[in-house]
């Protein structure tokens, strides 16, 4: 419990109207997009500006109270899960686009602005913000910075870190600093780069200057069905081998297609084993000739149906289906876990085969939706909690992420490590790696008050799982020993 | 009423576990939720409200206090239903939750009186007519200027909604049967509504004329009453069922193909009678066949190939989607298509089109502050496209938006615009 002095200090930091303390209200903040991990916070504050964010952080720092920043709460790794007896600092009242500068092609926004609203604000100038997580209509730029979010078009355009020029950041002791600058090349260590993707463990971002791109002259989108996931995977490899850099290449397997079609009615073929969405953009001539090449590659691999978006409306529909796919899986399964991992593109077919086997062994269905172009998988493990399948599903999901590491890939492509996968980190990193990461974190936050328990494994976090004895990952890695 | 002491819902049709489990907590609903737009608080978002319903269903939280406060704050606009990729039926969750609150939570005396007053006035045409006389005197004496200073917020908001009263219209009655021009294409019965009939009588007249011109025989029974929509949306289940049954009784005996409504809120609830009365063996089937016949007037007009000659109208028209038409009934393309049959008419959409104007049944009376913020925001979005006319298919929206547009833009129901084009006359 927080004592009265801390409560009073926080109320005067952000204004009493911007503090939530009713137990029922606090319950609604107990989890983010990953509902399996829950923790009721002691207090939620909703500051109105950077100064009051800093004031709230200073109070926490002075009193040794842990705090967690929260955007729209759509994260899928439990990165915004509150800490026991800690404070949630919600950035949902900092939602202004402060400036759109069409000449220098950049925008200055507050952290609670949604990803899509940046593009909406820039659209009248013929500009847009490139990274496009599937949840872009709701996820906030602050959360994107924390997670270094990607999206379908990051294959060509890069992740959040490639599009953020500078940031005003409240450090864990309440100091307000600027990281990065208006020019691309900054001298000295790239602290901006260190901060982006740190999952809220190094501070709270309060103002972000993002790069805007010109809307491409032409966009061509096709939806192609294939007789197998393997055939679709080969198409992806061939497209890349032909020297084409598509704006996006997305693959969906049959289960995912069924779910998306049910939700959106985008015109996907219900019984096809696999489908690719390929998008090219750029100058009309280049786009046109490459589009023909892509069509030829699709044909060569036995494409069973090729649908080309006739206009912007049809294109939007195809994308809507793809982007709603995670949530749409709710229509074909009572519960599911969204996993996120990366494998080298050349091992796509192999990993999908292994996932299928593992799913069969566990008696669970796995749907696959993924950014095929960069090997970023999103296996969706379907289960029924009421039928007691939760633990099996979590186990399978974790095994899939660790399989990605085993195949030379990564635990996460874009959803982050958060609470969910902190304990798998030793699978991917050695003791020295983890110790180095911890030292970087401690340099920003020696008191470990800023989003503690996320990203890096701790013995307490990873040792306290109920159920049968399992060797602790840190035990296996030789970092700790059981006495 | 005794206040419920144990936590959670009572046993009478609480929100079902199955419907609650449909929510996967993805948050896609947040940006379209009006209260989340205003306050950015999780428990005033659809996801948050469903989370609280879920906790209440498990008996983990009490209904009184914060739970009631946040369910009350919901406009019931159903924008979240449109946005949801998982197919969560928030409308059914809300309609199951509100009666629980009405039954089990003791409201303050003034709240009870105010809500009681609304339900004693609005569903009754005669009482509304009496209110219209009072309103006329009130407006002639410019008492509204006094009211702005002395009334408490809720009453101030309520009086400010009153449109300019035309007594002749308020007391006029509609012909019971209107013959079609030319051969009959459809036989329809029309709901004349309560507020609609007293304050927007001319919309009903235009509806009859337009339908007749397009080959519909229109019956408008005199013995019809309130359809129960206001009660249904406010959790007054008894009120809703009583009026639903009466409405079914009145209309089912008429030999018609369709039942036509020109009020979005009424149409939405009439299409839901089948759900509302599903458990009543005597009424379930009757409700089902009634609901199947219900059409919004623009829906019906869009189904019929235009037959009557349209005279050109040169105007830029902004179309506002009433929540209970767009979100609740999925009727978005039809009214636009109907308007576009008029040569020369430029139909444009509004920025933030999915966002409620703040009217929402009785919401702008019981929650005047958020309603006012939303009204201002809608008015700003309308001014931004600089239209000659604003068109929307719901009297509640017309009253609410009218208040915040302050006469800047003339406002009409779509059938009034079509009526003017068919008759080759300027809009009133």
UniProtKB/TrEMBL annotation, chain A:
Pfam family of this protein, just one? Answer: FAD-oxidase_C
**Source taxon at top rank:** Bacteria
Keyword set for this entry?
FAD, Flavoprotein, Oxidoreductase
Q: Does the keyword Transport apply?
A: no
Provide the FAD-binding PCMH-type domain boundaries: 37-215
Kindly indicate whether the keyword Flavoprotein belongs to this entry. Answer: yes
Protein name, per record: FAD-binding protein
In the record, what lineage is assigned to the organism producing the protein?
A: Bacteria, Bacillati, Actinomycetota, Actinomycetes, Pseudonocardiales
TrEMBL record, chain B:
Which SUPFAM superfamilies does the record cross-reference, listed alphabetically?
4Fe-4S ferredoxins (SSF54862)
Keyword Iron-sulfur present in the record's keywords: the answer is yes
Question: Which cofactor does the UniProt annotation name?
Answer: [4Fe-4S] cluster
- Judging by the UniProt lineage, the source's domain of life is Bacteria
Q: Which UniProt keywords apply?
A: 4Fe-4S, Electron transport, Iron, Iron-sulfur, Metal-binding, Repeat, Transport
Reactions catalysed according to its record: (R)-lactate + A = pyruvate + AH2; glycolate + A = glyoxylate + AH2
Stored InterPro entries: 4Fe4S_Fe-S-bd, 4Fe4S_Fe_S_CS, Cys_rich_dom, Glc_ox_4Fe-4S, Helical_ferredxn
Give the EC number. Answer: 1.1.99.14
One Pfam family it belongs to: Fer4_8
Q: Which residues form the 4Fe-4S ferredoxin-type domain?
A: 13-44, 65-88
Instruction: Look up the signal peptide feature and give its range.
Output: none
Q: How is the cofactor bound?
A: Binds 2 [4Fe-4S] clusters.
Task: Give the function comment from the record.
Answer: Component of a complex that catalyzes the oxidation of glycolate to glyoxylate.
Can you name this protein? Answer: Glycolate oxidase iron-sulfur subunit
Species for this entry: Prauserella endophytica
């Amino acid at each position: 419990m927080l004592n009265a002095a801390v409560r009073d200090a926080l109320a005067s930091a952000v204004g009493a109207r911007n503090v939530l303390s009713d137990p029922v209200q606090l319950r609604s903040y107990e989890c983010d997009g990953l509902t399996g991990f829950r923790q009721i916070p002691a207090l939620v504050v909703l500051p109105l500006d950077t100064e009051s964010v800093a004031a709230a952080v200073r109070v926490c720092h002075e009193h040794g109270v842990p705090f967690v920043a929260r955007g729209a709460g759509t994260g899928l790794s439990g990165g915004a899960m509150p800490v026991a007896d800690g404070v949630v600092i919600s950035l949902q009242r900092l939602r202004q686009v402060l400036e759109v500068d069409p000449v220098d092609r950049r925008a200055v926004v507050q952290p609670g602005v949604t990803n899509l609203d940046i593009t909406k604000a820039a659209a009248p100038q013929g500009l847009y913000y490139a990274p496009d997580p599937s949840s872009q209509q709701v996820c906030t730029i602050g959360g994107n910075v924390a997670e270094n979010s990607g999206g379908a078009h990051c294959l060509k355009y890069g992740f959040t870190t490639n599009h953020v020029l500078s940031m005003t950041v409240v450090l864990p002791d309440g100091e307000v600093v600027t990281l990065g600058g208006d020019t691309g090349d900054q001298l000295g260590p790239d602290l901006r780069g260190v901060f982006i993707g740190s999952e809220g463990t190094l501070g709270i971002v309060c103002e972000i200057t993002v790069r805007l791109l010109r809307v491409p002259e032409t966009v061509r989108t096709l939806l192609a069905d294939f007789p197998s996931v393997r055939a679709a995977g080969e198409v992806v490899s061939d497209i890349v081998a032909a020297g084409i850099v598509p704006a996006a290449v997305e693959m969906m397997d049959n289960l995912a297609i069924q779910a998306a079609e049910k939700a959106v009615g985008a015109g996907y073929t219900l019984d096809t084993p696999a489908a690719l969405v390929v998008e090219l953009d750029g100058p009309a001539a280049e786009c046109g000739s490459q589009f023909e090449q892509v069509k030829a590659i699709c044909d060569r691999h036995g494409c069973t149906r090729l649908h080309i978006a006739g206009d912007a409306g049809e294109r939007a529909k195809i994308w809507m289906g793809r982007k709603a796919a995670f949530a749409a899986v709710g229509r074909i399964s009572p519960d599911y876990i969204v996993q996120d991992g990366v494998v080298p593109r050349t091992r796509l077919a192999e990993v999908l085969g292994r996932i299928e086997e593992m799913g069969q062994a566990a008696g669970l269905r796995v749907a696959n939706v993924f950014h095929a172009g960069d090997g970023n998988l999103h296996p969706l493990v379907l289960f029924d909690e009421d039928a007691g399948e939760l633990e099996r599903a979590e186990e399978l999901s974790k095994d899939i992420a660790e399989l990605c590491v085993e195949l030379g890939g990564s635990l996460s492509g874009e959803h982050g490590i958060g609470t969910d996968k902190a304990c798998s980190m030793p699978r991917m990193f050695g003791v020295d790696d983890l110790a180095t990461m911890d030292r970087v974190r401690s340099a920003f936050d020696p008191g470990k008050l800023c989003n503690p328990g996320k990203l890096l494994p701790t013995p307490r976090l990873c040792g306290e799982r109920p159920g049968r004895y399992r060797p602790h990952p840190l035990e296996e890695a030789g970092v700790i020993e059981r006495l | 009423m005794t206040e419920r002491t144990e936590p959670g819902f009572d046993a009478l049709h609480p929100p079902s576990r199955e419907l609650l489990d449909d929510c996967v907590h993805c948050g896609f609903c947040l940006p379209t939720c009006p209260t989340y737009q205003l306050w950015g608080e999780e428990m005033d978002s659809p996801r948050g409200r469903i989370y609280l319903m879920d906790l209440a269903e498990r008996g983990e939280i009490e209904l009184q206090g914060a739970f009631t406060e946040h369910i009350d704050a919901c406009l019931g606009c159903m924008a979240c239903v449109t946005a949801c990729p998982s197919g969560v039926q928030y409308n059914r969750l809300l309609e199951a939750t509100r009666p629980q609150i009405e039954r089990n939570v003791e409201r303050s005396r003034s709240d009870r009186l105010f809500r009681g007053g609304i339900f004693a006035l609005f569903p009754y045409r005669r009482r509304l007519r009496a209110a219209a006389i009072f309103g006329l005197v009130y407006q002639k004496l410019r008492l509204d200027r006094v009211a702005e200073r002395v009334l408490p917020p809720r009453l101030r908001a309520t009086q400010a909604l009153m449109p300019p009263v035309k007594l002749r219209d308020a007391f006029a009655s509609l012909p019971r049967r209107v013959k079609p021009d030319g051969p009959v294409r459809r036989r329809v019965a029309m709901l004349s509504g309560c507020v609609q009939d007293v304050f927007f009588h001319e919309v009903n007249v235009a509806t009859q004329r337009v339908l007749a011109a397009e080959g519909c025989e229109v019956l408008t029974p005199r013995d019809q009453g309130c359809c129960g929509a206001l009660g249904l949306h406010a959790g007054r289940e008894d009120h809703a069922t009583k009026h639903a049954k009466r409405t079914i009784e009145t209309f089912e005996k008429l030999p018609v193909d369709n039942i036509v409504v020109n009020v979005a809120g009424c149409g939405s609830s009439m299409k839901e009678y089948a759900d509302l009365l599903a458990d009543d063996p005597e009424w379930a089937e009757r409700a089902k066949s009634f609901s199947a016949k219900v059409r919004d007037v623009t829906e019906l007009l869009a189904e019929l190939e235009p037959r009557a000659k349209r005279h050109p109208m040169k105007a830029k028209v902004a179309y506002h989607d009433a929540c209970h038409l767009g979100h609740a009934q999925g009727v978005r393309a039809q009214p636009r298509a109907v308007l576009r049959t008029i040569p020369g008419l430029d139909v444009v959409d509004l920025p933030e089109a999915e966002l409620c104007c703040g009217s929402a049944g009785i919401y702008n009376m019981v929650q005047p502050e958020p309603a006012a913020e939303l009204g201002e925001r809608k008015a700003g979005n309308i001014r931004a496209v600089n239209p000659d006319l604003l068109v929307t298919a719901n009297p509640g929206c017309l009253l609410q938006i009218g208040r915040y547009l302050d006469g800047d833009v003339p406002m009409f129901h779509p059938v009034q615009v079509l009526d003017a084009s068919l008759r080759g006359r300027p809009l009133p």
